[in-house]
Amino acid sequence: MAAVEQAMPATATLASREVPPDPPAPVVNPNPNMEITYTGNTGNDMGISTMGFRSAKFNPSEWQESNYSKYYQSFVDRDNAERAIHESKRTVKEAEETTNRTQAEATKKLAESAKNIEFWKFELNREIQDVIDETDLLLAQKKRLENALRATEVPLHIATDNLNCRQRRLGVDLVQDDVEISLLKEVEIINNVQDLLKNTINQTEKQIRLNRDAKQNLEMDWSDKKEALEIETKSGSLRNHHTNKQFHDGAAKFEEIQSTPESWAQFTHDNIARAEHERMASIQLRTLVDNVLEDTSRDMREQADQVDVNFTKRIAQMEDAKTKLEENLNKVVKQIKDQESNIADLEKAIRDKEDPLKVAQTRLYNRTYRPGVELCRDPSQYHLVGEVNEINQSIDALKQQLNQAQNSLKDLQDNRMGLEKEISVKKNSIFIDREKCLTVRNRFPSRTKLQGYQ
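RE: above sequence
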C-alpha cells in the first residue's frame, strides 16, 4: 500500500496547482535486516524492567511513513474532490447548454409545426369558404329550378284549359286541327320539362348534401387544426420561469394511434382534394342547371309561340269560312226572296188562268144547249175545246213550276238554316279560340320567369 501511494505523487496534482507532499527522508538503519533495539540500560536500581515499553512499538520510519500516507491521502482526496467539483461544473454547464440547445430546437420545431398547422388551417379555411360560396350558388340554382318548376304549372293549366275549352266546339268544327295537335305537343313538352326539372332538383339536393358533408369534414379538420395550433402555440411559448408546468410521468412516449408527418399532411390534403372534387362537380352541375333552364324555357316558349301562330291561323281560317258562309247566306236569303216572289207570280198566273178557263168552259157549256143540228162540231167547238185544253195545260205547267219553286224555296230555307247554324258554330269556335283560349294564353309566363329568375 505504501509503495502504491509513493508511486502516485508523480501524477496526482490538484486543480489548484498544489504540489503533493514530499515523501519523508529515509532513516539509516544500521541493521537493515533486524529490528532496531535499544542497547542501553533497561533497568534501574529499583529493579524496574523496561522490556514492556519496547514491545509492540513502531519505529520512526514507520511513523513518518504513516504520517506521509495521511498527508498524501488527504491530498489525493482533495484532488479527487476538486476534480469531481470541476467535472460537476463542466457537466452542469454542458447539461445546461445541451438542455437550452435542445429546448431551443424543440421550440423551433414547435414553431415550425405551428407554422405548418397555420398553413393547412389557412388552406382549410379557404376551401371551406369556397365550398360555402359554391353551396350558396348551388342553393340559388336550386331556387331557380324550384321557381321554374312552379312556373310550369301555369302553362300546363293554360294548355289543359285550352284543350278543355276547345272540346266545346260544335259540329264539324270539333276537329283535330293544327291547334289541337300543337296544344297536345305543348302538354307533352311541359310534362317532360317538369320531369327533367324534378330530376335536376334531386341531383342538386344530392350535390348540396355532398358539399355540406365535405364542408363538415373540412370544418372538423379545421377545428382540430385550431385546437392543435393553440396547443402548439401554448407549448411553444412555455418557458422555464413559467408556473403552469409540472411533471408528467410517461409523457415521453409514442402512441400507437399517432400519425406520421406524411399521413398527417396527406389527411388534410385528401380532405381538401375531396372538397375540391365536390366543388368542381357542383360547378359543373350549376352549368348543367343553366343549360337545362335555358333549353326548357326555350322549348316551352317556342312551342307556346307556335300554338299562338296556329291559333291565329285557325281563327283566320274560321273568320274566312264564316265570312263566306255569311256571303252565301245573304245570297240564299236574296234567292229565297226571289223565289217567294216567283211563287207569288206563279200563284197569280194560275189564278189569272181561272177566268179564261171559266169563260172557255162556260162557252162550251152554253153551246151544249144548241138545238138540233145546231149542236155542231164547228171550228169554234174545236177551238174552244183546244182553248180549254191549252189553259189546263198552262195551269198544269204553272202548277208544276209552282211545285218546283216551292221545293226550291224549302231547300233554300233549309240551306239558310244550315248556313245560319254553321255560322253560329263558327262564331262559337272563334269565340272559344279568340276569347277563351288566346285571352288566357296572354298569361303565359315569360322566358325569364320560366328560367326561374322570378
